[in-house]
Each structure stands twice: as structure tokens, then as C-alpha cells.
Amino acid sequence: MPVPSNLFKAALKSGQAQMGCWVGLAETYAAEITATAGFDWLLIDCEHAPNDLRSMMDQLRVVEASDSKPVVRLPIGDTVLIKQFLDAGAQTLLIPMVESKQKAEELVRAVRYPPVGVRGVGAGLARASRFSAIPDYLQTADREICLLVQVENRAGLAALDGILTVDGIDGVFIGPSDLAADMGHIGDPMHPDVVAAVMDALARIKAAGKAPGILTTNQDFARTCLELGALFVATAIDVTLYAAAIREAARHALQLRES
């Protein structure tokens, strides 16, 4: 049994744009429903959603069983957490708030085994190796790990050129909401200054040979980002989709009572 091929990483390397959705309801059943929708990739969020290692792993299982490719966002770029999430079977990680080349280099070491990295060697008892059913897991795992880093404030943008020189970073995600807040435009990710900064960053990422990524529910801006070369683009969030739909359903129900 070989190490599972990381189809998301392969798609990015081949330049195939991947369209995704944020999964933040922190519920396996809801994740399974979302996995039937047809998105290329789904982001299981452990930063702003109430997920822990076990709930992430449960959702990872149902997404892996679908045609959508799972990406997992950690709450922080901590080496211990990275080890646990990789051992649980996540192959594509998105790490928030990367603000320096040094941090990017640290993250690359965290996802790789010695001697090139510092990932703890304990996969024999972990889901990632299919509980030792993959005999050469330790020798082959590194090549299928996809490491994405988030640049989402002015410090990160200032360090972006350095981050882009780090071998082992597969893609850079620009977080427009946090960037807007840091630029003094909190709640307004479509402010012209923020949009200009995002577009400039995406172009620099593409020029450096890394995969650019973005989350935006603005369809026109998503199209613009794709035209700039963005390769992993999320255009929907399950929480906001459900909230909007259920509120609209309640509004219609109340109107029926009043009519």
C-alpha cells in the first residue's frame, strides 16, 4: 500500500485552478453534505471554527471519501500541533499568520522528517501510515505533504518576497479580512487599498512559482484573482451559507403567518 497521492498538491503543481469552500460548522454530518456539492477542495477550519484534533479527523475522513480534496487549517503554526495533524492523516496544511521567512523555514522543517526536518517519528501507530500498513511511509511521506502559508497583515506582506524564496512552501494564501483590519479597514476587505494589496501579492506569488490562494465571496473579485493566476480559490463558507438560508426560510415562514 503506497502513501496516498496528494491530488490537491498535484493539481497546484500542474497549474489547475482549484475552487473551494470553507468548512466551519465543525460537524461531520454537515461536512459530509458539503463534500457532495462538487467543490475541488474543502478547508476544514481549526482556527476560527470550534474544532479540535478529533473533530478535524472525523471530518477529514468523510471529505477523503468524496471527490473533494481536504485542506486543514491549523489554529497556529506550532510544531507539536503540526506533528499531530499530520499523524492524523492530513496531507495539506494551511498555516495562519506567517510573518517572516524564518517562520516559513520553521514550518517546512516541521512537516518533514529528519534529517531535513524535525517531524516526530511516530507514524507507525498513526492513521497517516494506515497504522503501519504503509511500510515505507517514513521514506515517502514528505513528497506528498503540501504546505500552504497565510500572509494576512502588513508584516507578512513586507516579508513576502523572503517567504517566497523558501523551498518547501507550495502555496501562499492571502487573507483579505485580516489584512483589511491591519490596514485600518476592518470589515471592508473590498476597500480599494486592500484589493490593490491583494492583487499585488497574488501577482508576486505567481511570479515566484508558488501557488496563490484567496478566500472571497465576491464573485467578480474571485474571477479577477483567477485571471491573476490564483490557483486555490475559496468562494463560499458553509456557516454563512447556512445562516443566510435558514434566516431566509424563517422570514418566508413568518410572512406566511402574517398573510
Describe this structure in words.
There is one protein chain. By secondary structure, the chain is α/β, with parallel strands linked by helices. It has one domain (7-258): TIM Barrel (Alpha-Beta Barrel). Helix content is 43%, strand content 16%. The chain has twelve helices and eight strands. It has helices at 7-13, 28-34, 53-64, 79-87, 101-110, 137-140, 154-158, 160-163, 176-182, 192-207, 219-227, 238-258; strands at residues 18-23, 41-45, 69-73, 92-95, 146-151, 171-174, 211-215, 232-237. An eight-stranded parallel β-barrel has the order 1-2-3-4-5-6-7-8, surrounded by seven helices. α2 links the parallel β1 and β2. α2 packs parallel to α3 (53-64).
**Total E-strand runs:** 8
CATH class: Alpha Beta
Instruction: Characterize the largest beta sheet: strand count, sense, and whether it forms a barrel.
Output: 8 strands, parallel, barrel
Oligomer: single chain
Sequence stretches where pLDDT stays below 50 over 5 or more residues: none
Helix and strand sequence: HEHEHEHEHHEHHEHHEHEH
CATH superfamily: Phosphoenolpyruvate-binding domains
Instruction: Kindly name the structural category.
Output: alpha/beta
Task: State the share of residues found in helices, binned by percent.
Answer: 40-55%
Distance between the amino and carboxyl termini:
63 Å
Q: Approximately what portion of the residues adopt beta-strand conformation?
A: 15-25%
User: Quick check: average pLDDT?
Assistant: 97
- The tally of domains stands at 1
| Overall outline | globular
Spatial strand sequence of the major β-sheet = 1-2-3-4-5-6-7-8
CATH topology: TIM Barrel
> Over the alpha carbons, how many angstroms does the gyration radius reach?
19 Å
Tally of separate helices? 12
CATH architecture: Alpha-Beta Barrel
